Amino acid sequence: MAATDAAKITIMKGYEEGYTAATFALHDETHTIGNALRWMLMKNPKVEFCGYSAPHPSEPVIHLRIQMYDNASAITALTDALENLDQLAIAVNDQYRTSLRRGAFERFEEE
Amino acid sequence: MATRSLNDPRRQVKVGTERVYDVANTEFPGNYPGEDHSWNLKKFRKDLKVEIQRLSRRSVEFDLVGVDASIANAFRRILIAEVPTIAIEHVYVWNNTSVIHDEVLAQRLGLVPLDVDPSQMEYHNGVATDRNTLVFRLQVACERRKGAAREETDPEKLYKNSNVLAKHLTWVPQGEQESFFADHPPKPTNDNILLAKLRPGQEIEIELHAIKGQGNEHAKWSPVGTASYRLLPNIQIHRPIPPPLAEKFQKCFSPGVISVDPTTKEVKVADPRRETMSREVLRHPEFEGMVSLSRIRDFFLFKIETESAYPPERLFTEAVTVFRDKVKRLKVAAQALAVEAAQAREGEADADADAAMETD
Question: Where does the DNA-directed RNA polymerase RBP11-like dimerisation domain start and stop, copy by copy (chain A) (predicted)?
Answer without folding.
Answer: 21-89
